[in-house]
Amino acid sequence: MKTPIYLYKAVESPDKIIVHYTNLGDVRNGAIAFSKTSGEGHSRLLIRDCANALEVDAKVESLLAGFWQEKRYPQSFCTDDLYLYKMSEWADEVIYAYAIRPFSVGEAEFDKTRLEARQIVPLSIDGGQEIFRRVTEHLRSMVESDQPVPELDIVEVHDEYRDIACAELTEDDLPGEMAGWGSIVTFAMTFDEFDSFEECFEASDRIEQKNEADGDLTDCSLWDLRAFLLMEERGCHHRGDWPTPACMQLIYDVMDAIREKVKVAQERKPENESP
After folding, report:
1. Which of 204, 208, 233, 268 has CA 20 to 30 A from 77's CA?
2. Residue 153 to residues 33, 150, 181, 257: CA-CA distances in angstroms?
C-alpha cells in the first residue's frame, strides 16, 4: 500500500518545474499545527512508542517558534536529530510532520515542453520509482490542462484503494507496525462491508466503550475494528484535521488488534487455501 505523496514546488520557470516529493515511507512520525498568529503549536499527532514523545513535540514547537520570529517556514530541515517536513500551509497556520529518524525526499525536474521528468535525487525507499512515475503523471496532467502547479500539493493514490473483505484480509494488506496515520488511512478505505454509516458509527461506539472499560480489544470483532477505523478516517477527512494524540493511541491499539486477528486467521487456514 502507498500513502499520499507530498509535493513541494521549489522552482518554476517558463520551461521547467523542479519539485521535491516524499510519502514519508514507513517512518513513524508526529505532526504539529503551528499558528502564525500566536506563535504557538498544537499537537496533531505524537510519535507512538517514543518514551519522550511529549518532549520531542515541545522541541518541535520551540524550533517553529524561532522560525515564527524570523517570519519564515522552510519546506524541510534537519536539526538536533529531528527531521521536519512541511505538509501544508495557509495564511494563519502551517502543519509540519516530524520524525526522529530520517525519511527520504526525492527531487525531480519536469520539462513543460516535452512533458517529461528526470530524477535529480531519487527517492531512496521501496517503490521509489513508482512514486516518481506518479509524480510525473500528476505534473503532466496539471501542465496539459493549463492548471497552475501549487507550491504545496498532494498526489492522491486513489487507485490503490480497493475493497477487501474481512475474510480475505492478509498480513500483506496491513500497514507496517511502524506506519503512521497516512498508511492507516489507506487501509481504512479498503473497508466496504456495510449497508449504512449508521451501523459503522454504532460499531465505533462499541470500540470506544470497550476501550474506556478495560482497554482490551481482543474480544472485539474484526468488523467493528475496521468500522472504527473508517469512521475515524471519514471524520478527519471532513474536518480537514488529524486524530488527537489520545485518539491516535486508540487507533494504534485497534491496528494491533486487527493485526493479531488476521495473523491468527491466516495460521488457521489450510495450506491449500493460503493466498
Report:
1. 233
2. 17, 6, 18, 34
